[in-house]
């Protein structure tokens, strides 16, 4: 059989990740890119690369005609959508499939079935997946919603049936709030999702977000690859993910995993999926929704299971049978992912953009760095501000955590502000160490003022810059800080290293 030809309809770190999987499987990789991405790593890594159009996503990565043009010009046989962009768009999947290209992912029907959160709840109920108490679609009469809310008790969440990922939700603590929010949420749902179906669910407010990774082949086999806890998030953007969840009991993991596999097989699901649950204070799981794509945080599952999820996806797309039985999946150790985001905490977490003058990536045992940028690149305003993911593995959680702090210390990005300081704060926090995490944790506990003082950071950078310059021009001797800034010190004095100054070896 000739080499499969894989078009990767994405950019950045996930495009690089997929190209690596393709190369190891012996597949030919075809990158696509926008004018803003002409020299980015995914373009350089792929076997071939094709321009889609200008930087704006609707002219490039979300331009269906241009992607079809590249399919025709390259003879692509398979397409991997990554996450975001077209990854959960059933119309896209249909059009690609009709062009004779095999999607590395689920069918349009499976995406549609899970995109409707009411239908997803019904399917979950049939598969005996534990559910949050919730209503059927609500009629226009507010009395129905109020009666329902009063039967399950406040607080409740009004959710849009075609929302998801936290979009189109509204929290109501009492009857008055519910009355005020119903038509508002319905109107927004209609405008945002083209369908104004809404329903209510009991709101679980101190719950953890725990999700189950699945792989299903096209022959009706499915396995679960353990869980990921993703409670550390702000405004529905996950920031830290870890596996295993510190509080999940083995019997609950088994219950959630088996329920998730039943749901997927019931709907004839093929390829990778994630089933999201809330885990309440009593350790009870409740189904939220199913994500029909490879997720950003998939690497932590790969680290503990040793299974390459992208390679598994490619083999599933070729019709291979899963090579694992459930008992073959035996996660080892612990893994943590910190998302590296270009943003300015002091400016209300606005996305940061601009040229990347210089980077130094962390390395060493148990460290994985998934990025799609390099020195000399640029963070564009057109795309997601998540520019990379730092992942560490340890024999236990504490080893993974300490390794993460060490790796964050090694990480240098000059030119754009990032959340690396936030990640250092989070990973060193007693609540994180203790595993006291839940979805509202940061709303209740974090303020930007907690991060390092930028004036001290500036001094540290000035010292490092002078030291680097003196080394480059061959001027001997260490440099130290004084009231006048960085000055040459006695060359015979013992060196005061960056570590002893409370900075990293990279000078931060
Ligand atoms: C909830 C919930 C509490 N109770 N549903 C947000 C994302 C989407 N998957 C569903 N979400 C939630 N649904 C009930 N009945 C809280 C959230 C939620 C959340 C869930 C997972 C991760 C982060 C979150 C942040 C805010 C709210």
Would you give an account of this structure?
With 508 residues, the chain is an alpha+beta fold. It has 4 domains: 5-104, Rossmann fold; 133-202, ATP-grasp fold, A domain (Dna Ligase, domain 1, 2-Layer Sandwich), CATH 3.30.1490.20; 204-332, ATP-grasp fold, B domain (D-amino Acid Aminotransferase, Chain A, domain 1, 2-Layer Sandwich), CATH 3.30.470; 342-491, D-amino Acid Aminotransferase, Chain A, domain 1, CATH 3.30.470. The protein has 16 helices and 24 strands. β23 and β24 form a beta hairpin. The longest helix is centred in the middle third of the chain and has 19 residues, at 175-193. The termini are far apart. The chain binds ligand MV4. Ligand MV4 is lined by residues 132, 157, 165-166, 201-204, 209, 233, 236, 276, 278, 288-289, 439.
Briefly characterize the structure.
With 508 residues, the chain is an alpha+beta fold. Helix content is 34%, strand content 26%.
Task: Work out the count of structural domains.
Answer: 4
- Per CATH, the architecture of the largest domain is 2-Layer Sandwich
The percent of residues in helical segments reads 25-40%
Beta content comes to: 25-35%
Structural class: alpha+beta
Provide a count of the helices.
16
Kindly state the number of beta strands. Answer: 24
Give the bound compounds: ligand MV4
The CATH homologous superfamily of the largest domain: ATP-grasp fold, B domain
- Supply the CATH class of the largest domain: Alpha Beta
* Mean pLDDT reading: 92
Please supply descriptive tags for the structure shown above.
five-stranded parallel sheet, Dna Ligase, domain 1, alpha+beta, 16 helices, Rossmann fold, 4 domains, eight-stranded antiparallel sheet, binds ligand MV4, 508 residues, D-amino Acid Aminotransferase, Chain A, domain 1
